[in-house]
């Protein structure tokens, strides 16, 4: 499937401010960027960079005080989700055989305090037979028991807060899913991206679970089709890949995010 994705963000800047954006689609084996553009108005210098051992792209720029600007990202992206037989997912690999790069996604992180949720996770999901069944049950439990309430949380909200308050937004649903999986020794990571048919349109967060050599996407909000997602980044949690980090005084005056499927092409990656 091919998608047109775009994001337009506008800001008023009240003091000299450094911005770090994370809005560009990820290039990977299953996701091909066919076209893209990045325009900043008025024109200003920026730097694109990646971190060690990561393909996530960040944009860094410094903006003087008393400036208003808009950043626009557009891309045409081909996504070819890996098709996995359910029998493959029902197998559970031993932790000792996990790829080394997966190991960091077993341990607690800032927003996913899995060590505090072990007792709850074991009591609620520990009797299930395999990791895939546990991950699906966690996803379904969050959808059933946590209310989606816009603007109900903030940047410091954690998985334990979400479990206690029984409410949140997509990133909070994802953090809780990650924390509960890790509490059961199942590697899980944060997913941020563009989602087709999301209402209202916005950046979207899900979680991915590592099962028998494959990362499987789950969306506990049930707001997006997991086959209609364009990935921006993965991380331990949202603190590592926010859409925007800024250091200064600003106000967001406009935001528009879009993701539309335009073509199905099963032969694209052959």
Give an overview of the whole structure.
The chain has 270 residues and is α+β, with helices and mostly antiparallel strands. It has two domains: 2-80 and 244-263, Immunoglobulin-like, CATH 2.60.40.2250; 86-239, C8orf32 fold (Roll), CATH 3.10.620. It contains five helices and 14 strands. A four-stranded antiparallel β-sheet has the order 3-6-1-14, with no helix packed on it. A four-stranded antiparallel β-sheet has the order 4-5-2-13, with no helix packed on it. The longest helix has 15 residues, at 131-145. It is globular and about 60 Å long. The relative contact order is 0.23. Residues 265-270 have low confidence and may be disordered.
What is the strand arrangement across the widest sheet?
Answer: 3-6-1-14
Distance between the termini: 14 Å
CATH architecture of the largest domain: Roll
Secondary structure class reads alpha+beta
CATH class of the largest domain: Alpha Beta
Write the layout of secondary structure elements.
Elements lengths: L1 E12 L3 E5 L9 E11 L5 E3 L8 E6 L3 E13 L6 H4 L28 H8 L5 H15 L1 E2 L10 H7 L1 E2 L1 H14 L4 E8 L7 E9 L2 E5 L10 E7 L8 E4 L2 E14 L7
Parallel strand pairs: 7-8
Antiparallel strand pairs: 1-6, 1-14, 2-5, 2-13, 3-6, 4-5, 9-10, 9-12, 10-11
């Amino acid at each position: 499937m091919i998608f047109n994705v775009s994001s337009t963000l506008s800001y008023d800047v009240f003091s000299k401010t450094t911005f770090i954006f994370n809005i560009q689609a990820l290039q990977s084996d299953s996701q091909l960027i066919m076209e893209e553009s990045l325009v900043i108005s008025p024109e200003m210098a920026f730097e694109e960079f990646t971190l060690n051992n990561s393909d996530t792209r960040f944009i860094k720029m410094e903006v003087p005080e008393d400036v208003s600007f808009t950043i626009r990202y557009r891309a045409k992206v081909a996504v070819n989700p890996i098709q996995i037989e359910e029998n493959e997912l029902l197998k559970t690999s031993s932790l000792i055989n996990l790829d080394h790069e997966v190991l960091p996604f077993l341990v607690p992180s800032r927003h996913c305090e899995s060590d505090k949720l072990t007792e709850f996770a074991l009591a609620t999901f520990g009797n299930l037979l395999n990791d895939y069944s546990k991950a699906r049950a966690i996803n379904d439990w969050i959808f059933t028991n946590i209310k989606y309430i816009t603007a109900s949380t903030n940047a410091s909200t954690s998985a334990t807060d979400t479990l206690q308050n029984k409410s949140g937004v997509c990133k909070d649903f994802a953090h809780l899913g990650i924390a509960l999986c890790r509490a059961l020794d199942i590697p899980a990571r944060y997913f941020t991206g563009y989602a087709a048919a999301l209402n209202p349109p916005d950046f979207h967060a899900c979680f991915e679970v590592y099962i028998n050599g494959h990362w499987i996407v789950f969306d506990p909000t049930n707001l997006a089709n997991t086959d209609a997602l364009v990935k921006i980044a993965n991380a331990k949690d949202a603190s590592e890949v926010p859409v925007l980090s800024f250091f200064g005084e600003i106000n967001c005056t406009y935001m528009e995010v879009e993701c539309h499927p335009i073509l199905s092409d099963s032969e694209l990656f052959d």
